[in-house]
Amino acid sequence: MDPIDSVHSDDGQAEGGPSSGDQALPVGQSDLERAILAKLDEDKALDMVLIDLRGKSPMSDAMIVASGRSNRHVGALADHLLRMFKEMGLGKVKVEGLPHCDWVLLDAGDVIVHLFRPEVRTFYNIEKIWAIDSAHRGGAGVA
């Protein structure tokens, strides 16, 4: 699995569909990652990305980034994930940004989920920060 795997394209259509070959959706390594990705896909989250942090950061094993179409959609995605976490017995998951729903962060311990409105996601560009070959991480192209 690549360190950053996109699940949906920018137009919200699943990559790997009939017209784009047989590329499968990325699958998380843990049950929690797989459950989150499945729930987000079921709830029509856009442009889901799974970033594997194992061996790169002690704060979490994985980060999932996804977009919602609007504040209401982002809020609904967050609410559905919170309900799923409770059903899984994770208890209180730390949540930030829920009142405004521009950017909602859910910290489930082993997995951190970032939910954005598309324009907010573009502004913060979290995927680039965590890219393996980013200059600040000592990747290729650094003198």
From TrEMBL:
Instruction: Tell me if Hydrolase is a UniProt keyword of this record.
Output: no
Output the InterPro entries linked to this UniProt entry. Answer: Iojap/RsfS/C7orf30, NT_sf
Instruction: From the UniProt record, give one GO term of the biological process aspect.
Output: cytosolic ribosome assembly
- Protein localization: Cytoplasm
GO cellular component labels: cytoplasm
Q: Which GO terms describe its molecular function?
A: ribosomal large subunit binding
Renumbered to this chain, the Basic and acidic residues biased-composition regions fall at 1-11
Gene3D superfamilies on file = Beta Polymerase, domain 2 (3.30.460.10)
Region Disordered: which residues?
1-26
Tell me the keywords, alphabetical order: Cytoplasm, Repressor, Translation regulation
Keyword hit for Repressor? yes
The family classification in the record reads: Belongs to the Iojap/RsfS family.
- Quaternary assembly: Interacts with ribosomal protein uL14 (rplN).
**What function does this protein fulfil?**
Functions as a ribosomal silencing factor. Interacts with ribosomal protein uL14 (rplN), blocking formation of intersubunit bridge B8. Prevents association of the 30S and 50S ribosomal subunits and the formation of functional ribosomes, thus repressing translation.
Annotated HAMAP family = Iojap_RsfS
Stored NCBIfam families: rsfS_iojap_ybeB
Question: How is this protein named in the record?
Answer: Ribosomal silencing factor RsfS
> Which organism was this protein described from?
Brevundimonas bullata
